[in-house]
Design goal:
Chain lengths: 275, 275
């Protein structure tokens, strides 16, 4: 892959990278379109990265369908799909990790302690292998995008990072490969995330600024559905991810909810108009 | 610097990087010659990297002479000297670090706990800024070279790492910017490092294989000089840096000795001929 990318770069071609864990959905495809609009060719990586899963997480269960993924990439005009095996990515004496000191100490990083070290490391590796000019990541994984923007700037990777908006099912559920885990009953309950976001946005629109009030009402929305368990409901600064008590500027509202045994996330940036 | 390097690369030029902390001596110049022999142009970085110094170390005192360094680089035909300020390298929200899990737990890493995290981080940044095809490091800092080889392979940097042999003063003292700290009396004592290496090589040549014996005799050589304090005398595997008890293959002998208040290092790889 690196030899191919070096060859493309020698020809002056601009490479757009879309890193994924496969089991592609419309969300991933929208990122490929963004990459294609800003580069001469698109590379998609498909790699279920073991170092970003904790020991009790769903590494083994993570859904896979390489045949279908390749067909979707082909249809979308992708130039190359990079599908390494874990043993290609992490050799025998492997021991180097990229970690961030602050951004992981919030939101998903709290319940997934090794997750962002794994993400930062594998993304650094993908940047060095694929040598992209731009790389596109979904905004559903808001914290991941923040971590990647930060590490790209901090480590001076010559890569422009772009975010792609969350793509939703017609009823509002944010697309995720993990939605495949949901039973039909859980699928109905999973709507609580987008409902909580929508209700909160409406409350802010009506003038509510107190995060404690907004949080309590989001909790109510989520618990109104069966089989739901809240990991976090967070309101925070979109850059630093530090918690805020009052909505007085652009504020990230981020949710992680277990529906049955499936952990789902969703988010939106709340904006308050000038009074 | 990155824009200049991207420009050079677009022209198909191969970049050789020699990262330094300045106060250049013949050792550094020999690395520039190696770089020049394997690349179309040479970039030297001069940066006394704060993140690789511990709180009690010699960051402030580290010798500097940029005027002289620039003149030496010019004479050597260097294409660019990259001399960032710490605030250019580490911005306000800086928080990303590259660290290795095993190689730093030996030799200098034991008495300098943050050192190799700082080295791995700044070298990763320099690779991303200067975008070299090859990078040359001195073998005097043997563990540093091992760390950099490892992280380059682990993180897939498209950079070939080369080591340059230790350059010595006519009496055997390994060249080091820190030699400038030595009083004339200490300068004489500092010979104990190269003497210990030479004596050990002779003993191995004569058939001694027991590390305990070799270590005791190296200690004696070092303590025969005044103002010397041993940080470590180590015999280890040159790849993993793990300690060995017996010389039965290529073995790194590495020394760190304080002479007065100046900490000096030196090393050699011992080789045993076929019997």
């Amino acid at each position: 892959m690196q030899a191919q990318s070096l060859n493309w770069k020698r020809q002056g071609l601009r490479i757009g990278l879309v890193p994924t864990m496969g089991f592609l959905h419309e969300g991933h495809l929208s990122l490929m379109d963004i990459a294609a609009a800003h580069a001469d060719l698109v590379v998609v990586s498909i790699f279920v990265n073991p170092t970003q899963f904790g020991p009790t997480e769903d590494l083994e269960a993570y859904p896979r369908n390489l045949e279908r993924d390749l067909a979707l990439c082909r249809e979308r005009g992708v130039a190359a799909v990079f599908t390494p095996e874990p043993s290609d990515v992490y050799g025998q004496e492997y021991q180097s990790y990229v970690s961030l000191e602050k951004l992981p100490n919030h939101l998903c990083g709290l319940s997934r302690p090794v997750h962002f070290r794994g993400v930062a490391t594998v993304v650094s590796k993908l940047f060095n292998i694929v040598l992209p000019d731009i790389a596109v990541f979904g905004e559903k994984d808001f914290q991941q995008l923040a971590v990647i923007r930060r590490l790209t700037e901090d480590l001076n990777f010559p890569v422009r990072i772009m975010g792609g908006p969350i793509v939703r099912e017609s009823d509002g559920l944010a697309m995720s490969s993990r939605n495949a885990y949901l039973s039909s009953e859980e699928r109905a309950s999973a709507l609580c995330l987008s409902e909580a976001l929508k209700n909160t946005a409406a409350e802010v629109e009506k003038g509510e600024r107190d995060v404690a009030v907004l949080k309590a009402s989001a909790e109510k929305t989520i618990f109104s559905r069966p089989h739901t368990e809240i990991d976090y409901i967070a309101f925070c600064d979109p850059q630093t991810l530090e918690a805020v008590d009052l909505i007085d500027g652009p504020t990230l509202m981020a949710l992680a909810v277990k529906v049955g045994s499936t952990r789902l996330i969703d988010n939106q940036v709340l904006r308050v108009g000038l009074a």
